[in-house]
Amino acid sequence: MKPLKTGVILSSTVVVFYALCTVVWIAFPESFMSFMNALFHGLDFRRLETGQALSWWSVVYPAVVFAVWFFAAGAFFAWLYNLLAGDDRSHA
């Protein structure tokens, strides 16, 4: 497993899903909140709403944070996998 490639793939996947999640939230805010509340066993996500207008920065900044964090997590995962798998990888 290639650490840099794995990091890029995981990071890209998370950012795409984050963008899709944001689009769905903007398009269907009430349905989205109901879905999120159900997904997290009734945790009320409506309490997190501030009433402030959505800015590009409030969407882009978390996407950049996710990209960096999940790149690091993916690269570390692949590095650790390679370290622990040893010669077993050739028999899989």
Kindly summarize this structure in a few lines.
The protein is mainly alpha-helical and 92 residues long. The chain has three helices and no strands.
What descriptive keywords fit this protein?
92 residues; mainly alpha; 0% strand; elongated
Describe the structure.
- The protein is mainly α and 92 residues long.
- The chain has helices at residues 3-27, 29-39, 56-85.
- Helix 1 (3-27) packs antiparallel against helix 3.
- The model has no long low-confidence stretch (mean pLDDT 91).
What is the fold's blueprint, element by element?
Blueprint: H1 3-27, H2 29-39, H3 56-85
Distance between the termini: 13 Å
Strand content: under 5%
Order of helices and strands: HHH
Give the proportion of residues in helices.
over 70%
Number of domains: 1
Average pLDDT: 91
Number of strands: 0
Rg computed from alpha carbons, rounded to a whole number of angstroms = 18 Å
How does the overall form come out from the CA principal axes?
elongated
Biggest β-sheet description:
none
Structural class: mainly alpha
Poorly predicted spans:
none
Total DSSP helices: 3
